[in-house]
Here is the input.
Amino acid sequence: MKSQIFFVLCVTFLLTACGADSLDDFLGGSVSKDDNNKTDTVPGNSELAGLAGNLLDFDIFWDDLLGNGFIDAAEEVPTDEEDEEYDDFVENASFKSQINIAYDGTSAIVTGSVSNVDVSVDGADVTVNSTAKSVEYVLSGSTTNGSFKIYSDNKIKLTLNGLSLTSAKGAAINIQSGKGTYLESVSGTENTLSDAAVYSNNIDGEDQKACLFSEGQLLFSGSGTLTVSGKNRHGICSDDYVYIHAGTKIEIVSSASDAIHANQKIIIAGGMLEMSPSSDGIECEDGNIDIRGGLVKANITGEASKALKAGTDVNIMGGQVLLLTSGDAKYDTESADVSSCSCIKSNGSVAISDAVVYMKSTGSAGKGINSAGTVKISNSDVRVITTGEEYVYGSLNTQAKGIKADGALTIDSGTVWVRTTGGNGSEGISSKTALTINDGTVCVNSYGDCISATNSITISGGNIYCYSDENDGMDSNGTVTITGGMIVTSGSSINESGIDSQSTFKITGGTLIGIGGDTSTPISSSTQPSVIYNGSGSSGYLFTIAATDGTDVMSYVIPRDYSKMVVLFSSPLLDSGTSYTIYNGGSVEGGTSFYGLTTGGIYTAGTSTATFTPSSMVTTVASSSSAK
Here is the structure.
């Protein structure tokens, strides 16, 4: 699995880093001009760009590339009995006795007899009372009016061997035991479970919250398929925890409430899991959701529903995950607040590493990642789309967000694409404390701020692109510190900025161009020179800074019309005491290109608009003519 993820990440990185996906098809390569000095094409590698899509029109579908050539994760069975997960593996359990239950229309045939196990049959409803240890129950056959219910003082193994079980009275499988159940779908078999829409066989003091319900742990294995329809509440539910092992294939085609629900924790170590519930996809009330591998797909339609919802943390540590939500936000009477759909909702933190995670939310005020704690992304391909408008209920409101963290948000490596274009308040990547980018490729197109933080934004490396339709490209209510990386950020016209800092703004390294109707100014104690250019510009025209000896420092294709254009540029190529000229138009060949910014190319001069010689860390110049 690691090799497959590495391949996917490499391809994604190449597609992005080769210049694909800029706002106006700025794909890298050479930049040419027409007779009016306006750039009409930026050729680059169009074949790669076509495969990648671009930031404006990439999309995420249920039948996306996820799963193509899918190789399941390999699990290592623990051999140390002190390992806390030792008992979660059926390989470490032994079942010496077996009872077979074969469903046949309106009846069920029981074969096998075990001391201290009592099996009663009423039509096709089977009830087991057991105090015995090490018993395996094999269920097979078909019925449209039957069930399996068990009371057990010990762990059991439940083997599904070509079972089609539909209950007309309650849960299809009801495990009234606080001990664990190893549930195995036999290789090569198809197994289906469906419960009643209305439960008529409820017993006081007993739960049956799902089509497949257990008071104890549910431990899934086996390479056969299991298809579940939850007509009353959840599809699968454990009042303890759920563990899905590699090789398992589960499809929850419908559920009135959550597809999978547990109290303590949910672990997906591999396998293939698909779900289409009317409420949340996977919910763990009090603990973590851990995805360690496999293919997980969720299509969520209910109002304010969550594809992954954890009482504490969500950890995606491998595998491929596709999460779609389409429900609108709503007013929650219980909390007296508004709530919206989220692809990932965590009351703790969210960590994504060595994984492919695609998320799309189309309902009002939908979120990609919504974390009450921290968010950390490393060595992963993460793509987020939200399209919903702001949701307003009286004096309350909520807006769409791509990736939102109440705590610190860190991107260490990988590829992150975010597009949030739903209107007022839609933001790309935001933290209510500190946002840090150490490496990777981060590309954001947002109606509001692309990258924002309450306390600080720190960038030490990577390739970052921001394009805001109506606000700042990068916005910190506190400090901004840039020590490395390639950064291209575009705020809207008028008073919005490429970079907006409400406190200290310091640059000590990296290459940065910020363009907008305004900008924040780096402090004088910055150790890398910057230039601020004031003028105007039109979409598609080339803006260039070159040394007087003809050396091209940078060329940038202006992404939109600016009646007032403020450009902030900082680079280690700017030398104090060297004279530079700013040009409009012309052309540039070769060099390194990223979202319209080319460095190290060979420039053919256009029209000179200003000259400057850096004599301090920040030099301000004004144009003699607009970039047209």
Residues 2-17 form the longest helix (16 residues).
